[in-house]
Amino acid sequence: MKTATASILALAASASAFAPTSSQQQAARGTQLSETKADLEALAEKSNPVLKYYDPLDLASTTIWGQSNESTIGFLRHAEIKHGRVAMAAFVGYIVQSNGITFPWPAVGGGVATPTGSPPEQWDALPDAAKWQIILFIGFLEWFSEAAGTHYMRGGKPGQFPRFDENKELVPHPVPIGSLYDPFGFHKNKSEEAKAAGLVKELNNGRLAQIGIIGFLAAQKVEGSVPLLKGIVSHYDGEPMAPF
Length: 244
Description:
Elements: H1 2-15, H2 24-29, H3 37-47, H4 69-98, H5 119-125, H6 128-147, H7 192-221
Helix pairs in contact: 1-4, 1-7, 4-7
C-alpha cells in the first residue's frame, strides 16, 4: 500500500532523529516507559554505541501543542516506534510483491484480475472500492490505538497497541484475536528485560527499514537516485504519494 507507507514514512523523519528509550528500572515495573531526556540518552547508547545520543533538532527539549516536555517525548517516541513498524512491513511487503509472490486466490473479487507489476503499479491497478477498504481499515486501527487504553502522552506506554479483548466497547464486531501485536500469545511470558532488549532491536530495524522503503520508491521514481538499485527496480511513471 504505497500511499499509507510513503506518507507515514515521510512524516517519520523528524521523530527518528533521536533514540526513544526507557530505563531498565522502569521496564521492570512494566506499567510505563519513562519519557525524559535522560532516558533517551541512556537507550540511545544501547541502540547505537558508536553514534550514541543524536538529536540535532533538540526535539527532546521541546514542547508541542501546549503539552509538557514528557508528553511531547511520549508523542515522538510513539511516532518513531509506530512508523518503524510500518516501514518494516512495507519493506518486506515490497520485496514479496516485487517477486510476484501472492496468495493462491484472487486478490480482488468480482472477476478482477490480480494486479501485476511493481508494488506501486499493483496499487494503482486496484479498484477504488478495494483501496477504500484498506484505507478505512487502517484508519480504524489508528483511531482505536488513540482511543483505547492509557494514552502514550498521558502515562501510557509508547508503541503499545491496545488489546481488542480489553476494549470490546470500541470494536464494532467480535474479532478472533485479542492482540494485534501478539495474536498467538508467543510473547506474553517474556520478561521485561527481554522486552526492553527487543525494543532496541525493533528501533534499529525500523530506522533501517524507513531508509530502505524510501530508497525503493525513490529509485523507481528518479532513476539513478539510488545507484545500488539501478537495474533492480523498474521505473515508475505514476505518483507514489497519490492514493487514487
